[in-house]
Amino acid sequence: MTLEQIDYFICAAQSRTFFDAAEAMHISQSSLSKQIMKLEKELELTLWDRSKRTAVLTPEGEFFYKEALKISRQYHRSLEAVYHFKDSKLQALHIGTLPFLSQYHLTSVIHSFCDTHPELSFSLKEVEDEELLSGLEKDFFNLIFVRKHMIDPELYTFHALTADRLVAVFPEAHPSASKKSVSLSELKKESFILMPPHTSIYRFCMQSFHNAGIHPQLLRTARAESIVSAVEIGEGISLLTESSFQFFRQPSLVAVPVNGLKKLSVGIAHKKNMALTTSAECFLQFVKSHM
Questions:
Q1: Model confidence band, residue 21 (pLDDT cutoffs 50, 70, 90)
Q2: What contacts 40, CB < 8 A, 6 or more positions away?
Q3: What is the pTM of this model?
Q4: Do the domain assignments include residue 69?
Q5: Residue 84 lies in a domain
Q6: How far apart are CA 190 and CA 181, in angstroms?
Q7: Most buried by CB count within 10 Å: which residue of 64, 160, 191, 286?
Q8: Which domain holds residue 243?
Q9: DSSP character for 6?
Q10: Residues 6+ away with beta carbon under 8 Å from 210
Q11: Are residue 281 and residue 140 in the same domain, yes or no?
């Protein structure tokens, strides 16, 4: 017994004649009759009394008609539920980000998006570099907020939102604090406190030192807020993004731009070989238009 046969049977029961039912189902009358006969054979019941001029339901047919309606209704309810589930998956939006949203004034933009699109199922997860890239690769995230130098341009499309730069952070009494800019070579004798090794900023700093032929004196690594406190008491100096310095700055510290380094572009990335869902495209365009 198939759902198609059940629908044919219901249509025939609700029509004046088999001919009318066949017309409604867009099949020939003989095809309709064959499907109903197959149904009767499988059920081992005579559903129609064909002895009269117009076939009518037998008592068995009347009973099965009620059951068939239940089956058909449940089937179509299930189909609707499945379509709704599939649609909700398409509407779900999973965003990954580095812990820098507040620094680039993105928190308010995301909040505004959620207010504008309450129909979307939105999730935002703040993670560190490795988990962020892994999440995008494994499709845990539709989009990620990331720094451009972290991703492979062969695999990912990057949409720039804003730019940052590396600054040297000094106590205000440091001899270099009054300079308009410094080079890494001017800092080669300094003792550094840098961001943790798992961060892209640490790797960017170390690669920049390497490119300049410098082996930095690294005291230790720490989070940005701890670095600011350490530099303030004269433990060493640091290299931070300008946005981090502004976010955690102390009155007694000075940030001086570092010459000769690439800008740090911040934006949204996604896989090149995968079409964006409607919700992901909507989010991308919203953020770009509000930056």
A1: confident
A2: 46, 47, 48
A3: 0.68
A4: no
A5: no
A6: 16
A7: 64
A8: 166-262
A9: H
A10: none
A11: yes
